[in-house]
């Protein structure tokens, strides 16, 4: 009997060893009740699993802190529940979570629901424009008081072709005295007057540029906007004085481009998703390098073009860890470009609260008048970095579009990254959702 008991114990022990316990994408995270959290910054698991900070507290270095944030320099917009949080980047302190009021625009149907916030931009010290995807409108709020006070809601209007329009906007920005909104479902680039809230110009990217899915927009500060299309792999220049297209170019065929540094080639289904204007006057474009099933087949790639869009550079490879780059921005001094590179998406876990099995990276590209060159990418603890914002103090804010709902702050001076967990609203049943998270970080002026 003793031998049989011993044998059973050995079998149980071996079985336990053969089944590895689930792990988190990065060593900085800990597994708490089946989900991964950073115990140094998560207010619901501060220092230990289940250690919850008070309503007005944040988690800093694994301890609950009562430091308050009176003048946020960045705002985090949540996809689920219309949540908006102000953050003081240098302390990590946050405002209480505000739910943006689902006001109705001038074309509202009376059936407003809680917003899903997707993008935003400031037009003054306290006036914040937010894309309300769920209600198909722009919500303008005043953040001088907290929670923010609604100012106006602007409904999606009909396009110049008379068809119904949709505010499925990937990006908003302020340039040349206008608020620019780039729509995707109804491909339009629109300009709004921040004083009157009226639309002052638009270009239909379907009729005028042949676009299928415009992905990103940036301005050169001299009355020109550049728009990328992730379906046709094109870049188009738009004159913001006339809202007319002045130039367009298509990504060269893969057989016309040299191989990447690791020997790989660029996928034929390459998708251009974002760009910025570098100090040298070049347009910088990032490409995801995905196959048709949305899986990364090679590292993300970047190119530079001249402002007239006549010449593509050789591909600049930001490193093998930089997969699925979603956005690219330039630092305030225009010396460096950064890419938000998502973690590896695990399709088998697509409906769970941890759909990524590796951490995301921050791609780094040095910009200069002589040469644009990639530097080593920087590992983060964020599962799905998607949106970037350069702050007044030089820090780079990084959103995490995942159930962990974090914001990272990269300091170029010392290379360090700090993190805060944003208290994004939960689903109505109190649970998490794979699409929950911070969709946008918006720098205060």
Note down, in words, how this protein is organized.
- There is one protein chain.
- The chain has 445 residues and is mainly beta.
- Helix content is 4%, strand content 37%.
- The chain has one helix spanning 2-18; strands at residues 30-32, 35-37, 58-60, 63-65, 74-78, 83-87, 98-99, 117-122, 127-132, 137-142, 149-155, 169-175, 178-183, 188-192, 199-204, 214-219, 224-229, 234-239, 244-250, 272-277, 283-287, 301-305, 325-330, 336-341, 361-366, 373-379, 385-390, 396-400, 406-410, 417-421, 438-443.
- The strands form nine sheets. It has a four-stranded antiparallel β-sheet with strand order 7-6-5-31, with no helix packed on it. The protein has a four-stranded antiparallel β-sheet with strand order 8-9-10-11, with no helix packed on it. It has a four-stranded antiparallel β-sheet with strand order 12-13-14-15, with no helix packed on it.
- Strand 9 and strand 10 (137-142) form a beta hairpin.
- The model is unreliable at 1-21 and 159-164 (pLDDT under 50).
Briefly characterize the structure.
The chain has one helix spanning 2-18, and strands at residues 30-32, 35-37, 58-60, 63-65, 74-78, 83-87, 98-99, 117-122, 127-132, 137-142, 149-155, 169-175, 178-183, 188-192, 199-204, 214-219, 224-229, 234-239, 244-250, 272-277, 283-287, 301-305, 325-330, 336-341, 361-366, 373-379, 385-390, 396-400, 406-410, 417-421, 438-443.
